[in-house]
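In response to reviewer comment 3 from the previous cycle, which asked for concrete evidence that the modeling workflow produces usable outputs, we include below a single protein chain processed end to end. The sequence was submitted unchanged, and the resulting structure tokens are shown without manual editing.
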Amino acid sequence: MPQGIIITEWTEDQGLTVKLNHPEDIEADLDDMMRIFYAHITGAGEAGNVLVRLEKARSNVSSYFTGMESETPFMINLMLDLGEEPEMFGETVIHDIQETILGFLNKMGKDVSQDYEIVKELRLYIKTALFMLERLKNLTKEQRLAQIYVSEKGRSILQILQDKPLSRKELQGLIEEKLNKLITNIEITLDPFVKTGLIKQDWVEGDSDISLFLLSDFSLFRTPVAKLIEDAKNRLPTPTLATKYLEEVKKYFTNYQPSFEDNLKIAQNMMNPDKYDYISLFRERAYPLNKIPRGPGESIEEVGGFLKILEDDNIIIILEDEKNLKWVLLFTDVIAHTFFPEYLIEKIRKDSMEGKLKKNIAIKHLEFLEETYKK
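The workflow returned the following structure tokens.
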């Protein structure tokens, strides 16, 4: 599980110092912090991310550096267990956490009298962020598909395996070439593919490495919310609200066209555990704005923040009834739909005939696809 976050800053007079660590008892060995710092500044010292393995601390560190040219060079270090890597939680999620923490840091020092409250809010945010990261290890199948979609690495793996089966080593080489980055643990990268049943890993006689076979594909899109549409047709939750809701849904879907940018937006919402909880909740019924259930430890402000994002992304809609009471309704449901990759069958046959695919691998892939189709 994530161990905590250590924030350091660099100044000319004091060098590298720890600005904040949470939880407060997490060890911040200065030698380790310097190792991470040197990993960042090797070269131009520009802003960016590195992953550093710390043997003494028994930790993998996902570190973001603001760069030597920034007003105050900060390092935001997410301390993970050995064997954990940031992509387990999703690249976008880690980026959002880093940006939010940086926002707090940039407020500090402007008004010394406010620094105590800023630090207090920052600690609370980090505590919440670490809890969310822990929840990300227990995603639903739908959320794991969204996790694949939001990751450039995940989308690239899917695209490559849509062409033909490959060994793990072959896939790793192609991904590293395509993205121009080193992949240190291909097993972790493939984890959401295995857990969602998109791929099967198996040995092929005569090969020295495990081969990867695509068994299922998926797509993301929005759809009207069947339960709420049925309720609205029955003039629920109120006649005025039902009429407004049906009109807005019809207007939206008349012009709706799935796109990569929109799918990326809905995938990011789906894989966030807090937002996904509200999407699941609103699939069943509409709620008055002042009676929305809150999760353990969630403040009214936090819930309002989630709802604002979901509203801006056209996932929920807030409408007033005949008494001017505001209601929250799921406006567009977000679906990760898996389907049988029928397109692969003819491609496997053709590639085998043309010698682009070994016969034993082609046969095994077809057998796996047949098993999947029967299920």
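The longest helix spans residues 112-135. We consider this sufficient to address the reviewer's concern, and the full set will be provided in the supplementary archive.
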